[in-house]
Design goal:
alpha+beta; two-stranded antiparallel ribbon; 10 helices; globular
Protein backbone atom coordinates (compact mmCIF):
# COMPACT_ATOMS: atom_id res chain seq x y z
CA UNK A 1 0.00 0.00 0.00
CA UNK A 2 1.36 3.40 -1.01
CA UNK A 3 -0.47 6.53 0.12
CA UNK A 4 0.61 10.01 -0.96
CA UNK A 5 -0.39 12.11 2.04
CA UNK A 6 0.14 15.34 0.09
CA UNK A 7 -2.21 14.39 -2.75
CA UNK A 8 -5.02 16.92 -3.25
CA UNK A 9 -8.12 14.99 -4.34
CA UNK A 10 -9.49 18.02 -6.13
CA UNK A 11 -6.87 17.46 -8.81
CA UNK A 12 -8.18 14.19 -10.27
CA UNK A 13 -11.97 14.53 -10.04
CA UNK A 14 -12.57 16.69 -13.12
CA UNK A 15 -15.37 19.09 -12.29
CA UNK A 16 -16.92 16.67 -9.83
CA UNK A 17 -17.03 16.29 -6.08
CA UNK A 18 -13.79 14.63 -4.90
CA UNK A 19 -15.77 12.46 -2.47
CA UNK A 20 -17.53 10.89 -5.44
CA UNK A 21 -15.28 11.44 -8.44
CA UNK A 22 -11.65 11.11 -7.30
CA UNK A 23 -10.41 7.60 -8.22
CA UNK A 24 -7.34 8.09 -6.05
CA UNK A 25 -9.43 8.86 -2.97
CA UNK A 26 -11.60 5.82 -3.55
CA UNK A 27 -8.55 3.58 -3.87
CA UNK A 28 -6.96 5.05 -0.74
CA UNK A 29 -10.13 4.46 1.28
CA UNK A 30 -10.33 0.87 0.02
CA UNK A 31 -6.71 0.14 0.90
CA UNK A 32 -6.68 1.93 4.25
CA UNK A 33 -9.86 0.52 5.75
CA UNK A 34 -9.66 -3.04 4.41
CA UNK A 35 -8.09 -4.52 7.51
CA UNK A 36 -8.90 -6.48 10.67
CA UNK A 37 -11.49 -5.05 13.04
CA UNK A 38 -10.80 -4.88 16.79
CA UNK A 39 -12.52 -8.29 17.03
CA UNK A 40 -9.95 -9.75 14.62
CA UNK A 41 -12.52 -10.25 11.86
CA UNK A 42 -11.40 -9.02 8.45
CA UNK A 43 -13.23 -5.99 7.07
CA UNK A 44 -12.55 -6.06 3.33
CA UNK A 45 -13.96 -3.34 1.09
CA UNK A 46 -14.72 -3.73 -2.59
CA UNK A 47 -14.75 -0.83 -5.05
CA UNK A 48 -16.23 -2.90 -7.88
CA UNK A 49 -19.74 -3.56 -6.52
CA UNK A 50 -22.25 -1.97 -8.92
CA UNK A 51 -23.90 1.13 -7.48
CA UNK A 52 -21.66 1.25 -4.41
CA UNK A 53 -18.72 3.52 -3.66
CA UNK A 54 -17.30 0.90 -1.28
CA UNK A 55 -19.02 -2.30 -0.22
CA UNK A 56 -18.55 -5.02 2.38
CA UNK A 57 -20.52 -8.24 2.64
CA UNK A 58 -19.69 -11.10 5.00
CA UNK A 59 -20.99 -12.78 8.13
CA UNK A 60 -20.47 -9.40 9.80
CA UNK A 61 -23.25 -7.92 7.66
CA UNK A 62 -23.57 -5.85 4.54
CA UNK A 63 -22.28 -2.28 4.52
CA UNK A 64 -22.25 0.32 1.76
CA UNK A 65 -19.92 3.21 2.53
CA UNK A 66 -19.28 6.62 1.00
CA UNK A 67 -16.51 9.16 1.40
CA UNK A 68 -16.91 12.34 3.38
CA UNK A 69 -14.53 15.30 3.44
CA UNK A 70 -14.69 16.02 7.15
CA UNK A 71 -12.50 19.09 7.65
CA UNK A 72 -14.92 21.99 7.22
CA UNK A 73 -12.99 25.07 6.09
CA UNK A 74 -16.18 27.17 5.74
CA UNK A 75 -14.38 28.98 2.89
CA UNK A 76 -17.03 28.17 0.29
CA UNK A 77 -19.92 28.14 2.73
CA UNK A 78 -22.97 29.83 1.24
CA UNK A 79 -24.87 29.92 4.51
CA UNK A 80 -26.87 31.08 6.20
CA UNK A 81 -24.88 32.28 7.91
CA UNK A 82 -22.02 32.94 5.50
CA UNK A 83 -18.57 33.31 7.02
CA UNK A 84 -17.27 35.34 4.10
CA UNK A 85 -16.73 38.37 6.34
CA UNK A 86 -14.24 36.31 8.36
CA UNK A 87 -12.63 34.45 5.47
CA UNK A 88 -11.89 37.65 3.59
CA UNK A 89 -9.75 38.89 6.49
CA UNK A 90 -7.19 36.16 5.79
CA UNK A 91 -4.82 36.18 2.80
CA UNK A 92 -6.05 34.15 -0.14
CA UNK A 93 -2.88 32.07 0.06
CA UNK A 94 -3.79 30.96 3.59
CA UNK A 95 -7.31 30.07 2.54
CA UNK A 96 -6.01 27.98 -0.34
CA UNK A 97 -3.49 26.29 1.96
CA UNK A 98 -6.34 25.30 4.30
CA UNK A 99 -8.38 23.92 1.40
CA UNK A 100 -5.42 21.96 0.06
CA UNK A 101 -4.71 20.32 3.42
CA UNK A 102 -8.39 19.62 3.99
CA UNK A 103 -8.50 17.63 0.73
CA UNK A 104 -5.64 15.31 1.66
CA UNK A 105 -6.34 11.83 2.97
CA UNK A 106 -6.03 12.96 6.59
CA UNK A 107 -9.18 15.02 6.09
CA UNK A 108 -11.26 12.15 4.70
CA UNK A 109 -13.53 9.58 6.33
CA UNK A 110 -16.01 6.90 5.29
CA UNK A 111 -19.50 6.52 6.72
CA UNK A 112 -22.46 4.27 5.86
CA UNK A 113 -24.23 5.67 2.83
CA UNK A 114 -27.55 3.84 2.75
CA UNK A 115 -30.63 5.75 3.83
CA UNK A 116 -32.80 4.08 6.47
CA UNK A 117 -36.55 4.72 6.66
CA UNK A 118 -36.12 7.60 4.21
CA UNK A 119 -34.11 9.60 6.75
CA UNK A 120 -30.77 11.34 6.31
CA UNK A 121 -27.43 9.57 6.29
CA UNK A 122 -24.59 10.51 8.65
CA UNK A 123 -22.94 12.57 5.90
CA UNK A 124 -26.14 14.51 5.30
CA UNK A 125 -27.24 15.03 8.88
CA UNK A 126 -23.91 16.19 10.25
CA UNK A 127 -23.88 18.85 7.53
CA UNK A 128 -27.45 20.04 7.99
CA UNK A 129 -27.64 19.83 11.77
CA UNK A 130 -27.23 23.39 13.07
CA UNK A 131 -25.44 22.16 16.20
CA UNK A 132 -22.77 20.40 14.12
CA UNK A 133 -22.45 22.35 10.84
CA UNK A 134 -20.10 19.77 9.30
CA UNK A 135 -17.50 20.04 12.07
CA UNK A 136 -15.71 16.73 12.48
CA UNK A 137 -14.62 17.35 16.06
CA UNK A 138 -18.27 17.73 17.05
CA UNK A 139 -19.23 14.71 14.93
CA UNK A 140 -16.64 12.64 16.78
CA UNK A 141 -17.98 13.88 20.12
CA UNK A 142 -21.42 12.66 19.02
CA UNK A 143 -19.92 9.28 18.10
CA UNK A 144 -18.21 9.10 21.50
CA UNK A 145 -21.57 9.73 23.16
CA UNK A 146 -23.21 7.11 20.97
CA UNK A 147 -20.91 4.47 22.39
CA UNK A 148 -21.75 5.67 25.92
CA UNK A 149 -25.49 5.82 25.17
CA UNK A 150 -25.56 9.55 25.92
CA UNK A 151 -27.64 12.13 24.02
CA UNK A 152 -26.11 14.23 21.26
CA UNK A 153 -27.53 16.21 18.32
CA UNK A 154 -26.77 13.22 16.08
CA UNK A 155 -28.07 10.56 18.47
CA UNK A 156 -31.00 9.49 16.30
CA UNK A 157 -28.89 9.44 13.14
CA UNK A 158 -26.08 7.40 14.66
CA UNK A 159 -28.48 4.95 16.26
CA UNK A 160 -29.83 4.09 12.80
CA UNK A 161 -26.34 2.84 11.96
CA UNK A 162 -25.70 1.05 15.24
CA UNK A 163 -24.68 -2.14 13.42
CA UNK A 164 -21.83 -0.25 11.70
CA UNK A 165 -20.51 1.27 14.92
CA UNK A 166 -20.80 -2.10 16.65
CA UNK A 167 -18.09 -3.40 14.29
CA UNK A 168 -15.50 -1.45 16.27
CA UNK A 169 -16.57 -2.61 19.72
CA UNK A 170 -16.28 0.70 21.52
CA UNK A 171 -15.13 4.28 21.01
CA UNK A 172 -11.49 3.36 21.53
CA UNK A 173 -11.80 0.72 18.83
CA UNK A 174 -13.41 3.20 16.43
CA UNK A 175 -10.72 5.82 17.05
CA UNK A 176 -7.89 3.34 16.62
CA UNK A 177 -9.37 1.77 13.48
CA UNK A 178 -9.72 5.10 11.67
CA UNK A 179 -6.45 6.57 12.98
CA UNK A 180 -8.16 9.39 14.87
CA UNK A 181 -5.80 9.21 17.85
CA UNK A 182 -4.73 12.85 17.48
CA UNK A 183 -8.29 14.05 17.99
CA UNK A 184 -8.63 12.49 21.43
CA UNK A 185 -6.85 12.78 24.78
CA UNK A 186 -5.26 9.92 26.69
CA UNK A 187 -8.61 9.19 28.34
CA UNK A 188 -10.39 9.35 24.97
CA UNK A 189 -12.11 12.67 25.45
CA UNK A 190 -12.47 14.54 22.15
CA UNK A 191 -10.15 17.49 21.51
CA UNK A 192 -12.54 20.16 20.30
CA UNK A 193 -11.47 22.88 17.88
CA UNK A 194 -13.47 25.70 19.53
CA UNK A 195 -14.85 26.49 22.99
CA UNK A 196 -17.66 24.05 23.78
CA UNK A 197 -20.83 24.42 25.85
CA UNK A 198 -22.52 21.06 25.33
CA UNK A 199 -24.04 21.91 21.95
CA UNK A 200 -26.03 24.87 23.26
CA UNK A 201 -24.56 27.58 21.02
CA UNK A 202 -23.66 27.92 17.35
CA UNK A 203 -20.78 25.72 16.22
CA UNK A 204 -19.60 28.42 13.81
CA UNK A 205 -16.80 30.88 14.64
CA UNK A 206 -18.13 34.36 15.30
CA UNK A 207 -14.88 36.34 14.93
CA UNK A 208 -11.66 36.06 12.99
CA UNK A 209 -9.60 35.12 16.04
CA UNK A 210 -11.82 32.12 16.78
CA UNK A 211 -11.78 31.12 13.12
CA UNK A 212 -7.97 31.28 12.97
CA UNK A 213 -7.68 29.05 16.04
CA UNK A 214 -10.24 26.65 14.57
CA UNK A 215 -8.18 26.63 11.37
CA UNK A 216 -4.93 25.99 13.26
CA UNK A 217 -6.35 23.05 15.19
CA UNK A 218 -8.00 21.57 12.09
CA UNK A 219 -4.73 21.71 10.16
CA UNK A 220 -2.73 20.28 13.07
CA UNK A 221 -5.07 17.31 13.37
CA UNK A 222 -5.11 16.65 9.62
CA UNK A 223 -1.34 16.78 9.37
CA UNK A 224 -0.92 14.50 12.39
CA UNK A 225 -3.36 11.97 10.93
CA UNK A 226 -1.57 12.18 7.59
CA UNK A 227 1.68 11.23 9.32
CA UNK A 228 -0.02 8.24 10.96
CA UNK A 229 -1.24 7.16 7.53
CA UNK A 230 2.19 7.67 5.98
CA UNK A 231 3.68 5.26 8.53
CA UNK A 232 1.51 2.54 7.00
CA UNK A 233 3.28 2.83 3.63
CA UNK A 234 5.25 -0.29 2.75
Amino acid sequence: MTIDIAFDFRTDCGDGDPDKASPTLRRYHRDLWSKPLPSGAQFDLSDTTPGAYLHHSSSLGEFTLSSDSVIATFINRIGPPSLRHLIEQLPESENEEFMTIAYTIGGMMVFPRNQIDGKGSINQDRGFNQRISDRFDLTLECIRRHYSDVWSPLADTLSRYANFFALFGDFRGYVNFFLLDDLVTNDFSVKLFMPFDDFRSSPLPEDVGTYKEYRRRSIAFTQARNHRIEELNV
